[in-house]
What does this fold into?
Amino acid sequence: MSEILEVKDLHFYYGEIHALKGISFNVKENEVVTIIGGNGAGKTTTLRAISGLLGGIASGEIRFFGERIDGKRPHKIAGMGLAQCLEGRHVFTSLTVRENLDMGAYLRSGAEVKDSLEYVFTLFPRLLERESQKAGTLSGGEQQMLAVGRALMQKPKLLMMDEPSLGLAPIIVSDIFKTIKQIRKDGMPVLLIEQNSNAALRIVDRGYVIETGEIVLSDTAENLLKNEDVKKSYSLQLLNVHAVFSNLKRRCEKKLSRCKLEKTAWTFYNCKEKRQSSERTC
Amino acid sequence: MVIQLIIGALMIGSVYGLVGLGYGLIYKASGLMSLAQGDMLMIGAFLGLTFYKHLQLPFIVALLLTMLIMFSLGMVIQRVLVTTLLKKGAATVYVILCTISISMVLQNVAMFAWGTNVMQFPPIFKKSVINILGYDLVPENLLALGVAITCMIALHFFMTKSKFGTSMRAAAQDPMAASALGINVPVTRGASWGIACMLAGGIGVVVGPIFGVYMSMGSMIGQKAFAGAVIGGYGNMYGAIVGGLFFGFVETFVSAYLTSNYKDFISFAILILVMIIMPTGLFKEQVME
It folds into this structure.
């Protein structure tokens, strides 16, 4: 089987932070691959580095159907048929559902677009009901459907999905995973990024486990499901992860805003030392 | 009398609205502020004058040609100047400063090219007054109003019905998602600046015959358009038009019934009052931070 996407030794820095430390993986034709890992492991960074949304990568090679795509601008990469469902949905809230879908088909024209639209509406009949509603009025699950539908409107050669289950009720999560199964059955290769490793591994062929910017494990989905390490590290984490994360985020935000306030105050009073110390704590 | 006043207020109001709309477009698309809109209007007026008076082109051709040139000018300013500044890591305030410099440069260019005198725009219509339903109206006023309304309607349909217009709105809202869908976000930003300049320039051509064409004609109109845009909720296209009309009506009626010497004083006092009472503008628009 030929490779659709091939990532070799990908390094990426956020300023000074070495976020990706030599990631290598591939996606072949007719398969669904997942990258699983905890929070801050570098899943989203990997996807966004591939699709060019983060600007240039530090080193490494990304090939899509054999052609180098690292260094290309994101809209060019999207034009080559690499679609991405962003984490946190990112629907255009002030546009209607239909306009959102039309934007998915931005680079396409003609009768094929209509076919895609019908396909999306059969996958998500709910979107047809809400066609002329503003996307911002949809529920979280519906927005996720819209995000997936919008990516499908690109008729991509590879669909990359970034945590489609994030922040959704369990029943809607299972809906989303059913849809991914269906998309896969319809012949579109998918690269799925998930924290929900159990659910993800049940619908994919192969999986990679990522930890702090490195691939630590790669195997078939079956083997990964049986793997005790994977189970231990993620099923436990899964139970708490949403609660812990939101808690942490809230605390961080509080602290950060206080820090910023302090910093401004010290800047105002021209106390260089105090300002620097509060900058450090930030 | 009242009818003429209303027509006049509508005319000047929609001029403010259309120029102000450009501020909103730029702000929505790039989170930046351009303070050169008034001088874009001035440059547009001079270009229109040149095409119409000196090159003897038909008025409509002069208008469209001016709009085309102004669109390119706006696009170039964004794609070359602003993008370069932002690439170098300049803060928003420097970009705003840059647009102030641009307006100075434009004024000086106009001074070099056309001089400092007020230039008369030759009349566009043969009659100086026309009679409609028993009211004497100035055809140039009607023309300005007509062009302004046409531009607004055209822009509305462009932004909501065309693919590129929709993509401009999408890119303004979520640039990352837009570029992941294959939308060329830098180009949509450039187009927003281009359209803003195009509207101001086009309006310059139609107000030229009313106010005369001179170097500083843009500054007052630009300020009032800005005020209108702020009142309407900065960043809201339709709000800018309502805000501009509001200003046009206040100004016209104050100068007709109270005092024309202090009309600006009163208009801007009302602006401050509105800002205190409704800090988010007439339409609650989310302002970017």
Notes: Chain B has one domain: 2-218.
